[in-house]
Write a structure and sequence with these properties.
alpha+beta, ten-stranded antiparallel sheet, 1 helix, globular
Length: 150
Amino acid sequence: MMRCSGRWIAAAVLWVAFTPTAGAETLAVTVEQWGLLGSWAVDCSGRPDREQGARLTYEIRKDGRVMYRRDFGEARDENEVVSATVNAEGLLNVMVYFPSLHQAREFGLLLQKDGSLRAIYNRSERGEYTIRNGKYVASGAPTPAQQRCD
């Protein structure tokens, strides 16, 4: 009995040791297979600008981490994607940790038939929405389609 529990303990230790690596690979595979990687903007021909549109880039680092870069022209940041799942309707649910905001945000992205990307929701970890049902909460305006820039 002791030998059997010793094996289970060793197996559990190995599982815990390799879980982050497996999780990172799954995350990278999810965003790659879904088609998220690359740069996106409402207008790829214009310069990134906070008012006219940022350029948003998703990439996989050599260490396997998935990163989300935002370029607003005068300001830029880089944040880690901590999870990504695809639901039955094909919506990619992405969670990004923003150290500068001291919070994680979750957003849902939809890849449209024409290849463009559209934000369907964006909410804080407290459930406060800035985008809901494909519309900005503050104005009610629909979110614009983003085109792949690369």
